[in-house]
Amino acid sequence: MKALRDVFGDTLVSLGSTNPDVVVLDADLANSTKADKFAMAYPARFLQMGIAEQNCVGVAVGLASLGFVPWLSSFTVFFTHRAIDPIRMLVAQTQANVKIGAAYAGLMTGLTGKTHQDVQDLAIMRAMPDMTVLAPADAIEGEAIIRWATEYEGPVFVRLARDASADVFDQEYRFVPGRTISLKEGGDVLLISTGPQSVRCLQAAELLQGQGISAGVLHVPSIKPVNKEEIVKAAEKVKLVVTVEEHSIYGGLGGLVAEILSEASPRRVIRFGIEDRWGESAPNDYLLDAFRMSPARLGERIQKLVA
Amino acid sequence: MTSTTDYQELEALARKGRWLAISTVAGSGAGHVGGPFSAMDIMVALYFRVMKVRPEEPKWPERDRFILSKGHSSIGQYVVMALRGFLPVEELKTFDKGGSRLQGHPDVTKLPGLETSTGSLGQGLSVGLGFALGARMRGQKFHTFVMMGDGELQEGMIWEALHIAPRYKLGNLTAILDWNGLQQFGWVLAINEQHRGDRRDPWSGIDLRGTFEKLGWRCLEINGHDFSQIVPALESAKASGDSDQPTMIIAHTIKGKGVHFTEGKHEWHSKVATKEELKIVAAQLGIVEAGV
Ligand SMILES: Cc1ncc(C[n+]2csc(CCOP(=O)(O)OP(=O)(O)O)c2C)c(N)n1
Ligand SMILES: [Mg+2]
Fold first, then answer.
1. N or C of chain B: less Cβ packing under 10 Å?
2. What ipTM, to 2 d.p.?
3. How far is CA B186 from CA A17, A32, A147, B207, in A?
């Protein structure tokens, strides 16, 4: 169990030792995102762009055209909101080989509150042609995704939670873009989730097991591209599909699943997530409880739905 | 005019403010210290001497406006507002906890007395410009003050506002630059390089004053920890409200000012003091009722 931000920093350091083209551009948050580990290891390839996210994105595009593999370090919210136009026009529309390390994604940003919480990023980035959008659940998947993104040629957005989640994968794990992963089979209800919320869904499913409810959990680390057939197949095995995400219920994973199923295999899809309101400053446990995303709260909600 | 004893009163308030800020952050388990400490003296001067405000009537139309554009220093503003009577000092305990009016970054929808929300850096001056422009269009006489950080000054949006304010001749707008020489991570010092803080001053070697002046701002340069410079500068800015030039107060400050181990240390940008450290803080700030 390792915080995803440490995974980000450590994996960049490891990549830096084998790939001299890997560079990191920071918008003055390296000691939060843990890109500072790379700064210590390879000071000449660490470029401090200051508190100026739009410029940072543009510079990365220039570097990418010379064969560098730029990783960007800032909070998710400052990429998907402050720097979205350069990301749209310069990165996505030119298919630039820029990697967005979107740190502190979701609600749990270390007590900073709604100004720093990003629960719209998946909706925004999903709607961006040519952008690959990935959201790892645990440390092992996080590392695999960061390595994959570095090798892949093209824009990648990696949604990284700040803190640690319990390990669900082992060293055998291999990331395949588009692939969904069944973390648990279940016949009554299928929870479809992404990022560390998948781990909380697995914990909820275990709680539900004790109450005689058989809940499956399907993890979607690759929001875009995504293997639609796998989602349809998994959904067709159960009576009820519930999407769960640490994100707005609009346009993110819930939107994705509802779109796929309504076209291919219409059925009821319940979306759990943040319901059209802003977050607030509070400890993680408080937020998970208040937004009904903790394993216990999820268990209660599923139980009510199934009853 | 203002007497020495008056400045001593402000100094005492600022010491108390620093104590409340660092101890509140310690109580909530997260928050900023360096930025609130560098901005504390100026905010005390604004709220206690310079701005006309009515704590009991925060929406009073004639009030002067203050925007803390460097919103991560929120606890500093909350503390000064509490001492001034906008909220109970007791309420500071709720900072950063669920359901609080005192969010990690200032939230105008939660706490009366705030003028806008800040937290994503670089946006406050534009709102202040709108206040000042609106006041002119409506014939209102209030003054608008906006405080920005020196790291924050790297945001392009600030420069978008910097060249518009003089075009509209907004003498009723004052920007205050909290030039404390440090941001969050910044640039490491080269061997033998000497700066005020333990990282490179983001604007060292750059003629900021000349740059602002060329854009059309009237510039005042002060020691941002000396009330005998702070109060007259703010008053002079306010007195030129009918003039045709916005004022930029360049305040030379020290990040973490007030306690020896927080001064000039970038790690104290955001950090929680231990119990032991709080004892030292209380002693250095001369806080007797601290109870630590
Ligand atoms: C747009 C944006 N980018 C990044 C941050 C994260 N951040 C918060 S404070 C800070 C450093 C600010 O430095 P400065 O403006 O000098 O403030 P001070 O030294 O007074 O604390 C950074 C990078 C932010 N809040 N907003
Ligand atoms: Mg600063």
1. N
2. 0.96
3. 24, 12, 27, 19
